[in-house]
Write a structure and sequence with these properties.
By secondary structure, this protein is mostly beta strands. It has no helices and eleven strands. Strand 4 and strand 5 form a beta hairpin.
Length: 127
């Protein structure tokens, strides 16, 4: 099983970028829980968005709510994170994680719930 996170880079303040999490050897369809985490220098890894269950229930942390959108494309076996109105606080390494279990939103933000992790992609927001 491999998760490949991509799409990061240098983005201007107020700009947007879309991250992708592509899977091989594992299905990211509606039966899977998929989450995005990020880790900024000197800070702990935090869950910022999750999508879980057949209903596509989503979760966003307060820090990204209203600016980020998580979505999945089962045909492409990929989960996306559309990031908008970026600011310096969004500078971090972004990781995607997946699990075959359908976690309820109340626990879907816990890193320990995920069996598979991508390698991370750096997003740097320039002012």
């Amino acid at each position: 099983v491999q998760l490949q996170a991509s799409g990061g880079g240098l983005v201007q303040f107020g700009g947007r970028v879309r991250l992708s999490c592509a899977a091989s050897g594992f299905s990211l369809d509606k039966k899977a829980s998929v989450a995005w985490f990020r880790q900024a220098p000197g800070k702990e890894r935090e869950a910022i968005s999750c999508i879980t269950s057949r209903l596509g229930t989503t979760y966003y942390s307060d820090s990204v709510k209203g600016r980020f959108i998580i979505s999945r494309d089962s045909a492409q076996n990929t989960v996306y994170l559309q990031m908008m109105n970026l600011n310096s606080e969004d500078t971090a390494v972004y990781f995607c994680a997946a699990d075959s279990r359908q976690w309820i939103i109340g626990v879907a933000g816990q890193a320990s719930r995920y069996d598979y992790w991508g390698q991370g992609t750096q997003v740097t927001v320039s002012s």
